[in-house]
Amino acid sequence: MNENQKYICDVKMEDILWNRLTTAYVRATEFPKYFSIIESMESKKNVKTALEEVLRNIEHQSTLWRATPFAMIFLERIFQKAVLQMDKNDIAYDIVKELLRFFKLIAEIFHEIVQYSVKQKFEPLPYFSDMLKEEYLFPEECDDEEEEELWEEDIENCSEELSCSFYYYSYQVLLNCKEILENINDTTLKEQAHKLQKLLY
């Protein structure tokens, strides 16, 4: 297991500076709360709302964000847990169904980006944890007007290495799903699982 895979397996929720990671619409400050709701699998309505909130923020029109690879770590862990419970738990089944769709989308976006970058350099940062270096984080405190200006600059001035890292490390997380996908025997979901498997290489 290399250092990046070890990080993916070992990193804790509290190790991530969620309030300093941007998404398509807001900072990821509320993500730990959403993950807790989803993982509990207690309320169908609450799980659906929390899952939708995370997914719509970490991918928008094939663009991934600073929070995306870190969110993918915890979504993948939830996915693993849900697959093992889906036969007896309707909420777990719904989570698996939605994450299969979303993970396939992320894998497709990654391959498109790599293919597009054939004539250019696709060089992510060396380590997953590099994305949490101070130089890559959104300012901790700023007023509303300043935040809006910084948000626009954040999108426009994102370095090539950092941008590549959003896609590369999100995909690296997905590679951990390969084994668990074999456990999906549900007729409706098996085809989706097989399609995702084919994208993980």
Textual characterization of the structure:
The chain is an all-alpha fold. It has one domain. Helix content is about 60%, strand content about 0%. It has nine helices and two strands. Strands 1-2 form a two-stranded antiparallel ribbon. Strand 1 and strand 2 form a beta hairpin. The longest helix is centred in the middle third of the chain and has 27 residues. The radius of gyration is 17 Å and the shape is globular. The two termini are about 15 Å apart. The relative contact order is 0.15. The model has no long low-confidence stretch (mean pLDDT about 90).
Percent helix? 55-70%
Derived from helix and strand composition plus strand pairing, the structural class reads mainly alpha
Regarding quaternary structure, what we see is single chain
Work out the radius of gyration: 17 Å
Number of domains: 1
Strand content: under 5%
N- and C-termini, Cα separation: 16 Å
Output mean pLDDT: 91
Reported for the largest beta sheet, the result is: 2 strands, antiparallel
**Can you write the helix and strand succession as a string?**
HHHEEHHHHHH
Beta strands, count: 2
Unreliable stretches: none
Strands across the major sheet, in which order?
1-2
- Bulk shape: globular
Tally of alpha and pi helices: 9
